[in-house]
Design goal:
transmembrane, 15% helix, alpha+beta, two-stranded antiparallel ribbon, ARAID factor, transmembrane helix
C-alpha cells in the first residue's frame, strides 16, 4: 500500500480497512505522530516505511530490522510480541492466551468455554435470558410511556 507523498498530516481513517497489507509506505508525508491504535490488526505487515521524524510503531523491539536513510525509516520483519523475550506490560489472565494484534500489539483471547471480563465466566453467554429480559423491559416501558403520554398528543 503506497501512501507516500500524499500530503497526509494524520493517518487516514480508511487505513483500518487495509489490515491485510504486507507493505505500507508512509514516507514523504508531513506526519507528526502515528497514533497508537493506527495499526491494530495489521498482523501480516512485514515492511513499513515512515518519515524519519517518526519511530517504528511498537518501538525497535517490535521489528527484526530497523534501518534509516536520509529521509525515512524502514521497519522490517514484524515480531510476535507473545514469543518475545521481553516481558509483556500486561500479562494475559488465567484461562486466556496471548495473540498478536499488530506491530508491538497483542490481545488476550479466552480459552473455550471461558468468556467475559478477564475470562472468568465459564460456559456460554445466556442469550435467551438476556434477550427475554431486554425485550420485556422495552415492551413494558413502551406501553407505560404510550399510556401516560397519549393524553398529551393532539388529534388532527
Amino acid at each position: 500500500l503506497d501512501l507516500s507523498n500524499c500530503s497526509l498530516h494524520s493517518v487516514p481513517p480508511g487505513l483500518a480497512e487495509a489490515t491485510t497489507a504486507i507493505v505500507l509506505d508512509l514516507t514523504e508525508n508531513p506526519l507528526t505522530a502515528l497514533p497508537s491504535g493506527a495499526l491494530v490488526g495489521f498482523m501480516q505487515l512485514q515492511s513499513l516505511a515512515v518519515p524519519l521524524a517518526l519511530e517504528c510503531p511498537g518501538g525497535s523491539d517490535a521489528w527484526q530490522n530497523v534501518t534509516e536513510d536520509r529521509s525515512s525509516r524502514l521497519c522490517q520483519g514484524q515480531r510476535n510480541p507473545c514469543n518475545s523475550s521481553v516481558e509483556l506490560a500486561w500479562p494475559c489472565p488465567e484461562n486466556s492466551v496471548c495473540a498478536p494484534d499488530g506491530p508491538g500489539l497483542f490481545q488476550c483471547l479466552c480459552h473455550n468455554p471461558f468468556h467475559g471480563y478477564k475470562c472468568l465466566r465459564e460456559g456460554t453467554f445466556p442469550m435467551l435470558l438476556f434477550g427475554g429480559i431486554l425485550g420485556t423491559a422495552t415492551v413494558s416501558l413502551s406501553l407505560l410511556l404510550w399510556g401516560t403520554q397519549r393524553r398529551k398528543a393532539k388529534t388532527p
